[in-house]
Amino acid sequence: MSEDVMEQIRQQIENNPVLLFMKGSPRLPQCGFSSRAVQVLAACGEKFAYVDVLAHPEIRVNLPKYANWPTFPQLWIGGELVGGSDIISDLYEKGDLQKMVKDAVGSADA
């Protein structure tokens, strides 16, 4: 496990209040789970950052070790792992995700 890659992952998570590690990009998701995560995040109405793990194989290999979460997408809000596509969808349907995203973006802007 490369220390440089782990540091890069840590900085990405710290520097982006809402960060989605996904396959592809929001405009061109490369799997159904990433596509669903993007749709749900977009519906929250706030900006979010993303990392295409297909374009960054070293992150794709090391992020599951860093996060102790084996699959993609991975949503990080306020430096904390929220989870994958199913969890994101469930939180959105309950109305919790919108608040989490808004709060994280608001505190980053403050």
Helicity, as a percent range: 40-55%
Number of spatially distinct domains: 1
Largest sheet: 4 strands, mixed
Radius of gyration: 13 Å
Structural class: alpha+beta
**How many H/I helical runs?**
5
Q: What's the pLDDT, averaged over the residues?
A: 95
Using the coordinates shown, work out and report the CATH topology.
Glutaredoxin
Order of helices and strands: HEHEHEEHH
**What portion of the residues fall into strands of 2 or more residues?**
15-25%
For this structure, what is the CATH class? Alpha Beta
CATH architecture: 3-Layer(aba) Sandwich
Fourth CATH level, the homologous superfamily: Glutaredoxin
Which overall shape is indicated by the principal axes computed on the Cα atoms?
Answer: globular
- What are the low-pLDDT stretches, counting only 5+ consecutive residues below 50? none
**Which strands sit side by side, in order, in the main sheet?**
2-1-3-4
Distance between the termini: 35 Å
Mind explaining what this structure looks like?
The protein has 110 residues and is an alpha+beta fold. The protein has one domain: Glutaredoxin (3-Layer(aba) Sandwich). The protein is built from five helices and four strands. It has helices spanning 3-15, 32-43, 57-67, 85-94, 96-109; strands at 18-22, 49-52, 74-77, 80-83. Strand 1 (18-22), helix 2 (32-43) and strand 2 form a beta-alpha-beta unit. Helix 2 packs parallel to helix 4 (85-94). The N and C termini lie far apart (35 Å). The mean pLDDT is 95.
